[in-house]
Amino acid sequence: MATLVFLEHHGGELQKGSLGVLAKAASLGDASAVLVGAGVTALAAEAGGYGAATVHVADDASLESPLPQPRVDALAQVVRDGGYDTVLFANSVLAADVAAGLAARLDAGLNWDLADLVQQDGTLVGKRPALGDSVYVDVGWKTEPRIALFRAGSFDATPTGGGAPAVESVAVELEPYSTATKIVAQEHEESSGPSIEDADVIVAGGRGLGAPENFSLAEELARALGGAVGATRAVVDAGWYPYAAQIGQTGKTVSPKLYVALGISGAIQHKVGMQSSNTIVAINKDPNAPIFEFSDLGVVGDVHEIVPKLTELVQQRKNG
Fold it and tell me: What is the pLDDT of residue 193?
């Protein structure tokens, strides 16, 4: 098996999701990686620590904008020249576009929303959640190259202790239609702290907080814990919190080490987005809230009374 992993980068840093996929690929056999962008060569060395034996680097000013089509050109060239039979992606808006474009370009099979990848009898088998994440089904590929897109948080970005990788420069020949689109401006949301995809701790709020201004309870607790703030779909639809923070079936899937749910009932649509968290703590005044059924620790009480005291205790512990 010759595996290639697409390494996504933003702000001069490799994304944890793609590093996690790389570490998983390395655990199954020899793994290589590909970096595409402008000024990205310096990032290649980091990939060796997550198991990449070789990093293909397409570093050119024409690749600076995070557009998918030029990346499809680069990956298609690397896959063909390197004879790769498997290409893996960590899910993101950009990665999903690139994976779909690559599948169309190479006439390859694409499995998406995978949560794991294993070898069974010498064959690669993907594990995909189904029926509202209540079961996992096995999926495979009829042809090569096999392309897989993994849901966020599927694998921890744990260094494997590998050495410096071989870095191979790639001179990309862009198709004429790949240069037809240009990004004329980029607007970045003002935010501080980790994103919900990367955070080890997430404090999420639901309608039980009562009002949009009460999200300050979640924000203060998240700040004390060094985490990020998430929200349910009902909260986002009501305009209480930005869509980027939505967790659930129609939002983002997360798997932090600690997930604190404030005033969240635990409907199945939200459960599927956070149930793989290592530890789930729920605070809800309704003792019959469904979220208590899959929480590691449940607190029945008023979030408006409990959360400020909890935040104060966390701050005291940190300062002590």
Answer: 65
Q: 99 forms bridges with which residues in the sheet?
A: none
Give φ, ψ of 175 to 5 degrees.
-70, 150
Give the whole-angstrom CA distance, residue 52 versus residue 232: 37
Structure tokens at 262: 């404030």
Q: Provide the β-strand partners of residue 260.
A: 203, 281
C-alpha dihedral sign at 232, 238, 242, 244: positive
In angstroms, the Cα distances linking 112 to 87, 99, 161 are 12, 9, 29
Residue 185, pLDDT score: 80
For the whole prediction, is pTM greater than 0.90? Answer: no
pLDDT at 252: 84
Could you give the 3-state DSSP secondary structure of residue 226?
Answer: coil
* Strand duo 9-10 + 13-14: pairing: antiparallel
Strands 146-150 and 86-90: parallel
Are the CB atoms for 289 and 266 separated by under 8 Å?
Answer: yes
Query: Residue 137's pLDDT is what?
Result: 94
Pick from 270, 301, 257: which is nearest to 206 by CA? Answer: 270
CA 287 to chain centre: 32
Burial 263-300 (b: 16+ CB within 10 A, else e): bbbbbebbbbbbbbbeebbbbbeeeebbbbeebeebbe
26 and 50 Cβ atoms separated by less than 8 Å: yes
- Alpha-carbon distance of 274 to 258, in angstroms, equals 10
Q: Which residue positions in the chain have pLDDT lower than 50?
A: none
Residue with the two structure tokens 């998430």: 230
pLDDT, residue 191, reads 57
Torsion of CA 9, 149, 45, 37, to 10 degrees: -40
Q: Single out the residue of 109, 168, 177 nearest to residue 144, CA to CA.
A: 109
- The pLDDT, as a whole number, for residue 141 is 96
Q: How far apart are CA 190 and CA 200, in angstroms?
A: 20
